[in-house]
Amino acid sequence: LFTAALGFLLHFVYDWSGGSDFAAAFSAVNESTWEHMKLLFLPYFVFAVVEFIVFSEAFRNFFAVKAASILLGLVSIPALFYTLTGMLGKLPDWVNITIFFLADALLYFVSYRLLTDGALRGGAMQLAGFALLWALLFAFVWFTYRTPHLPLFLDPVSGCYGVQVPC
Fold first, then answer.
1. Helices 33-55 + 62-88 axis angle, to 10
2. Is there a contact between 73 and 107 (Cβ–Cβ < 8 Å)?
3. Residues 162, 146 contacting (CB under 8 angstroms)
4. pLDDT at 105 over 80
5. C-alpha angle 146/86/43, rounded to 5°?
6. If we measure between CA atoms, which residue out of 105, 7, 118, 1 comes closest to residue 65?
7. ∠ CA 71-73-79 to the nearest 5 degrees?
8. Residues 6+ apart with CB under 8 A from 82
9. Which residues pair with residue 112 across a beta bridge?
10. In whole angstroms, how far apart are CA 87 and each of 77, 80, 83, 90?
11. What percent of the chain has pLDDT over 70?
């Protein structure tokens, strides 16, 4: 619920801030699929930090599980969005919001199952998971300001990429 609520709120923070460069780093700057993936990742990352502080001793598979779970959630957003768009054309906003909530629920369900099953153990797996989580954080911030001109990053409303003035 934390990730869903914070992700939903972060959708509006950039506009509420008047286009602040600081707010751009952690909120959606446009309607691209990438920015919606950022809305899932950043609250999840914050919540994972809290979980680590509370549960790190209990789960020796923490970082690998968190990395695998977020990858599944991140992949599910464009997979569902582009599949449904291809089948139905332009999607109503409630469908896009539902996709976000489904990706959120899926990643937490998988995270819970993997954590409690003891999957993905081992020092190398933990190191890889830790590195991947931080690499994703870096990528979401970096690509906000240095956005590749690829369809995943294109805002279908404005035709812009990332934070570009003028676009």
1. 160
2. yes
3. yes
4. yes
5. 45
6. 118
7. 100
8. 33
9. none
10. 15, 11, 6, 9
11. 96
59 pLDDT exceeds 90?
A: no
- Mean pLDDT computed over 105-134: 92
- Residue where the block lists tokens 């599980």: 65
d(CA 105, CA 87): 23
Q: Identify whether the C-beta of residue 108 lies closer than 8 Å to the C-beta of residue 101.
A: no
Max Cα-Cα span within the chain: 50
Q: Please, what is the Cα angle at 145 between 140 and 150, to 5 degrees?
A: 75
- pLDDT one-digit tens code per residue, 5-31: 999 999 999 999 998 999 999 999 999
Locate all alpha helices (DSSP H) within 57-122, ordered by sequence: 62-88, 93-117
The pTM is what?
A: 0.89
Extract the tokens encoding 160: 């812009």
Instruction: Compute CA distances 167 → 96, 150, 161, whole Å.
Output: 24, 15, 7
Residue identified by tokens 């990742």 is: 41
